Amino acid sequence: MDGKSHTSFENVEIRPLAGACGAEILNIDLAGNLTPEVYEFCNRVLLEYGVIFFRDQDLTPQQLLNFAELWGDIHVHPHQPSLPGAPGVWELIKEPDERMAIGDNWHSDQMFTAEPALGTILYAKEAPPYGGDTMFSNMYMAYDALSAGMKAMLAGVKTLNKYPFERARNRALQQGFKADDIPTVEHPLFRRHPETGRTSLYFSYGGTTRGLAGMRDEESAPIRNYLTWHMGRPEFTCRFRWEVGSIAFWDNRCVNHRAVNDYHGFRRYMQRVTIKGDAVIAA
Ligand code: SIN
């Protein structure tokens, strides 16, 4: 014991954000001692809603890491510098004079790696006065809503995924990537969640998911175009409005997300942590 109070559940409240996914967990202070019950409670809500949100948190980078580590090991980005003393916590900033925003297409984090992220935690330190929301899409629903014909045709199909170098060329170069040493990684298009056992669609926008294994580009393009539209259908989504102190924690194994880049002229400063995942299980 270090004298800090235990995180209390006395008045905790779960408030769903939309019909498809997302719930705010209210009246919980993540700066307190994080008991196993905090993990059990938050993980239960995460598995049910796919993405959980907290408001009015005041965390040091170490406290953010303490919370993330309840779920497992932290991914330390090979090229993004971590905050001092907090390996794995890095800054995601869009300055007023910048036009490009990281992550403004539907995707699941690190899908271009063999063992993609379990979850990602984003913590708002500065929020624009309007805009800059993040959207999430329930990929169980996206799978369930496919017709029996599409499910049968695409069962067993693998996606071809690559770091989106061309789009993020300057950033990638700064981070030490070179176009010719980026491997293509295959994943099942339909994946099984290791904890819930449910099947979801596992697919990112075209910068990452470049093709379908065993098909020519012109054959898979109509399917990829359809899935790109389908996975963002409004009825599968929720949208989160950031304030200073807000936290979003999403499960990359069943939820896609995208940043909304509609706040040019304002600064948005987030701290970000990614929890390591395992090899993807085919459904
Ligand atoms: C991301 O794709 O991780 C960024 C999401 C955001 O900034 O809203």
What is the number of strand segments?
16
Helix content: 10-25%
Number of helices: 6
Structural class: alpha+beta
Largest sheet: 7 strands, mixed
Q: What is the helix/strand order? A: EEHEHEEEHHEHEEEEHEEEEE
Q: What share of residues are in beta strands? A: 25-35%
Strand order of the largest sheet: 1-2-3-13-5-15-4
What is the 3D form? globular
Distance between the termini: 43 Å
CA-atom Rg in angstroms: 19 Å
Ligand set: succinic acid
| Poorly predicted segments | none
Q: Taking all residues together, what is the mean pLDDT?
A: 93
Quick overview:
This protein is an alpha+beta fold and 283 residues long.
How does this structure look, described?
The protein has 283 residues and is α+β, with helices and mostly antiparallel strands. Helix content is 19%, strand content 25%. The chain has six helices and 16 strands. It has helices at residues 36-49, 61-68, 139-144, 148-154, 169-174, 217-230; strands spanning 13-16, 23-26, 51-54, 90-94, 119-126, 134-138, 158-161, 185-188, 190-192, 199-201, 209-212, 237-240, 247-251, 255-259, 268-275, 281-282. The strands form four sheets. Strands 1-2-3-13-5-15-4 form a seven-stranded mixed β-sheet. The protein has a three-stranded antiparallel β-sheet with strand order 12-6-14. A three-stranded antiparallel β-sheet has the order 8-7-11. The longest helix has 14 residues, at 36-49. The chain is globular. The model has no long low-confidence stretch (mean pLDDT 93). Succinic acid (SIN) is lined by residues 92, 102-103, 120, 134, 257, 259, 270.
